[in-house]
What does this fold into?
Amino acid sequence: MATIGWIGLGNMGRPMTKNLVAAGHTVRGYDLDERAVAAAADNGVEAVGSIAQAVEGAEVVFTMLPKGEHARSVYLDEGGVLEFAAPGTLLVDSSTIDVDSANALHDAAEKAGFAFVDAPVSGGISGAAAGTLTFMLGGADADVERARGYVEPMAGNIFHAGGNGAGQAAKIVNNMMLAISLQGAAEGAVLARKLGLDAQTFWDIAHVSSGDSWAMRTWYPVPGIVESAASNQGFDATFATALAHKDVGLALAGAESVGVTLPAAQVAFDNLQQLMDEGYAGKDCSLIIRNIDPEAPGVPQD
It folds into this structure.
């Protein structure tokens, strides 16, 4: 079993480290939020007070951070991972960040003598808790194979997406498609209700027909239909609007860089922006149904 340094113990990092501890690894965890560190410690993570303490003696270091700027800071700034980790340490970034930042971290890590893998995940908080996340790994073949063994206790699926930055590319395209599918599910749910269809009956039909999608099966924005949906809990976040907005924005930026127009992604981005403007950045992204029908079942009322 290995000693693992972990930086970022939020809604995803905390259950992911719990699964590593359950697999027999020693995990040293650090986060700027002392409450997150304390919660992780309750799950068997060794709480530490700095990046330096987290990476000391670690065979592998994982990061799970909100944005590219945070990842760059944690790795590259004074007091960061590249300063204190031992040369040769495997570095794995499971944040969802822009491809340019991922490539910059690959380059800096290589120059400093480290193996680096970009390894974003899909599956949300429930997948992190269950150890069924999909990992999309980007990097050199040998580094990805080395990372695979550490990832397995947290994963249901592991894919080598390609070279440097490929994991991040796969993740932002996937999440863009999710946002578009969720927009369709929300519009369909509203239209079905307005046309007089029973919510459960319509879902049963769409679920086995061409309107089906992962968003339909997992995050349907009507309460009482799908057990795992945030709509059953007042749209408390399983995947926050602000994070979904960030990911679709990354996809749009990537598309612009290669000269591709994504009209459906732009609609999803704009609808998520509307939710944020109205004060719902911390609510689940499936609350986009509110933009279509503010009085839809389960939608918070101001």
Summary: The CA atoms of residues 3 and 26 lie 5 Å apart. The radius of gyration is 20 Å. The chain has 14 helices and nine strands.
